[in-house]
């Protein structure tokens, strides 16, 4: 019997609860998982089987969504986050990570959180899921990858203002990002010889120093040095010509310099099916590549496609 994937509930006022049920409907016999959250937050009438431990999930999954009940302070109103539930959201993530650490779940998939509600209700001190999971794992450096069928991208800097990128983007940071991406492609995706393209920071990758010198001064030399060490990395490349079909065929992942440079192309190509993967953790973590979508929460129209892809990828990565 394979271990199930743990799915933390995320922000209960968002679309997380309803797409969890729809993901179970699609995957109940193909990819057993269990939901960690307050059953009161699930859509009325959802087929639910309360379980006491993850090992019970597979046996009940064919008839109902396995739920590991996790008490929250308050019920929820779709579209209206309640800061009183912030502690519950955080502790559900912590519980999922602990179950994976103990070998009771194969991986953790996290439903979207709402950072403002967590800050207001619990003083949440992290920019996002990725940084919080790194702290829980005791890992200093992790990498956020957005993965889909057509493209994988990695931002070297993540949740910071664009004005801060040049100062935060250091040779050490870029080297670590490339190295963790290379290791993750090998171990999590089963790619024996990964090909990694690196984007430039400036327009046209600096155009020979006319639009910025970072590419000439240190990005290009660093990429060349890592390639000489045996990593299949090349660049820096102009970001505006990296993402058409012929360019994408040349690499397995693109390392980008900042958040939007990485996320715009994959969300354009795979808005409903992209998956957020955290590389560098001692366990597998995935998440749907979208937010809480308060504007449509509770209306039954949210697409579960990204969550379905995230759960299936978590299963496959854990198996590797």
UniProtKB/TrEMBL annotation:
GO terms for cellular component: cytoplasm. Binds 1 divalent metal cation per subunit. Can use ions such as Zn(2+), Mg(2+) or Co(2+). Signal peptide: none annotated. It catalyses: 4-(phosphooxy)-L-threonine + NAD(+) = 3-amino-2-oxopropyl phosphate + CO2 + NADH. GO terms for biological process: pyridoxal phosphate biosynthetic process; pyridoxine biosynthetic process. A divalent metal cation binds at residues 159, 204, 259. It is found in: Cytoplasm. Its cofactor is Zn(2+); Mg(2+); Co(2+). InterPro entries: PdxA, PdxA_fam. Pfam families: PdxA. Substrate binds at residues 129-130, 267, 276, 285. Belongs to the PdxA family. Homodimer. The active site is located at the dimer interface. This is 4-hydroxythreonine-4-phosphate dehydrogenase. It comes from Seohaeicola zhoushanensis.
